Amino acid sequence: MALAFDEYGRPFIIIKDQDQKFRLRGLDAQKSNIAAAKAVAQILRTSLGPKGMDKILSSPDGDVTISNDGATILEQMDVDNQIAKLMVELSRSQDYEIGDGTTGVVVLAGALLEQAERLLERGIHPIRVAEGYETASRISVEHLEHVANKFEFGVADLEPLIQTCMTTLSSKIVNRCKRSLAEIAVKAVVAVADLERKDVNLDLIKVEGKVGGKLEDTELVYGVIVDKDMSHPQMPKQIEDAKIAILTCPFEPPKPKTKHKVDIDTVEKFQTLRKQEQQYFDDMVEKCKDVGATLVICQWGFDDEANHLLMHRNLPAVRWVGGVELELIAIATGGRIVPRFQELTPEKLGKAGLVREKSFGTTKDRMLYIEHCANSKAVTIFIRGGNKMIVEETKRSIHDALCVARNLIRNNSIVYGGGSAEISCSIAVEAAADKYPGVEQYAIRAFGDALEYIPMALAENSGLQPIETLSSVKSQQIKDNYPHYGIDCNDVGTNDMREQNVFETLIGKQQQILLATQVVKMILKIDDVISPSEY
């Protein structure tokens, strides 16, 4: 694209290959952008809530994913339009920051854009719409602080955390086991949490899965599970009070870094070389035995001779363990990762109450359990399921539950779900709109109307009459001045979300509103689109 001037000094733009491109400006460009973003939001709308539908996604290489997690669906979709990619980034931002609410934030952004389109058609400038939305989002965030409740919890009373995680899991495929999975997620987070600093390092929680068994067999292991087995089939399968040497050096003779060649022309020379190699192996094994190690975990492999020697010296070993797993084992057992045999000392050994090898079904698959560790700050959630898709979706669901529990430890404020928070914010925004004399009040009212799309989608996905259900709950909130009435998606018989124990984190809900508003403002300010014609 280049700028040129005609003979009268008037500027015009020269576009390279302009016969292959088209250009949209002004209101047409804004409508095109809004249509692209709404198309993405419409895809996720039916996945919202406990009765939301699942999507099946097929990758180019034939892998199939079934999920109703907004971030996963958008990550797997092949999106070309640049504005639609902004919606994908929006969902990803919510996932990175909060870990939950990835579907709701995209649906809310789509609703805000739909309302903005009506205002643009009425001649209101997009900047004034964006300013009105900014004001309304500030009102909503402040109102959420007002209607939020705080709850106290401790290691002895984890029920509030479990109830909130159950709300998150109720919209997933795994909702039939939501109580047990929520308990596992909360116990895992509490095990690695620093409650004094209100900090949780989710990297210390390893989520491992194995196809087979049933969802109810999912368990929490206070330690580390490694998808490996003992290096020799005759090594012991269970070691109590294990002292573990964690090595990143290989069980093999040292090799020079330069190119070398060894000429062996007699039997004596070959026997000397073999004895020297065997001596290296003997020294390595002896160093491990001398410091008191009863199990060796090595990042690298070792050949059959070293394996045979380890077995005869009664020193069980595990080989080819990944770097991340080694770090978790070191954290859990209180050991140190040793890069050279010369640095191996008794103080650097990790300690575990029980190390056992467990086999599954008839497939001869084996995994190593390292349990009852000296430092239980590293835990593993071991997921079972009937097929790979169930295991992967359960992993994603557990991730959401872990993030919610972490957010509650950081900030123990909650709002009630079922669309009650959105309806309450909508009422507050509509009441505040009258205080603004300019055209921004139209945008503020539109923001309030957009907030109602969330409870309306919940009602629609639950098989209820959306408009009738929403108007009934909204009038009930205004009449009783009680902000916790929401959509009864599970047909319990009451609209009181506090009574149903349907919670959401305050910071998650605030982040949804702020992120959606930011992206909508960005889209509204784009008024010129130059694209290849196939777009």
Regarding quaternary structure, how should these chains be classified? single chain
Q: What best-fitting shape do the alpha-carbon axes yield?
A: elongated
CATH class of the largest domain: Mainly Alpha
Strand content: 15-25%
Helix content: 40-55%
Overall tally of domains: 3
Give the second-level CATH assignment, the architecture of the largest domain.
Orthogonal Bundle
- Name the poorly predicted regions: none
By helix and strand content, what is the structural category?
A: alpha+beta
Termini, distance in Å?
A: 18 Å
- Tell me about the largest β-sheet: 7 strands, mixed
Pfam family, one: Cpn60_TCP1
Main location: cytoplasm
InterPro entries: Chap_CCT_epsi, Chaperone_TCP-1, Chaperonin_TCP-1_CS, Cpn60/GroEL/TCP-1, GroEL-like_apical_dom_sf, GROEL-like_equatorial_sf, TCP-1-like_intermed_sf, TCP-1_chaperonin
Family: Belongs to the TCP-1 chaperonin family.
Structure description:
- Keywords: Acetylation, ATP-binding, Chaperone, Cytoplasm, Cytoskeleton, Hydrolase, Isopeptide bond, Nucleotide-binding, Phosphoprotein, Ubl conjugation.
- InterPro entries: Chap_CCT_epsi (IPR012718), Chaperone_TCP-1 (IPR017998), Chaperonin_TCP-1_CS (IPR002194), Cpn60/GroEL/TCP-1 (IPR002423), GroEL-like_apical_dom_sf (IPR027409), GROEL-like_equatorial_sf (IPR027413), TCP-1-like_intermed_sf (IPR027410), TCP-1_chaperonin (IPR053374).
- This protein folds into three domains: 23-150 and 416-532, GROEL, domain 1 (Orthogonal Bundle); 152-222 and 377-411, GROEL, domain 2 (2-Layer Sandwich); 225-375, 3-Layer(bba) Sandwich (GroEL), CATH 3.50.7.10.
- By secondary structure, it is of the alpha+beta class.
- It contains 17 helices and 21 strands.
- The model has no long low-confidence stretch (mean pLDDT 86).
- The strands form seven sheets. Strands 11, 12, 13, 14, 15, 16 and 17 form a seven-stranded mixed beta sheet that branches. It has a three-stranded antiparallel beta sheet with strand order 6-19-20. A three-stranded mixed beta sheet has the order 9-18-10.
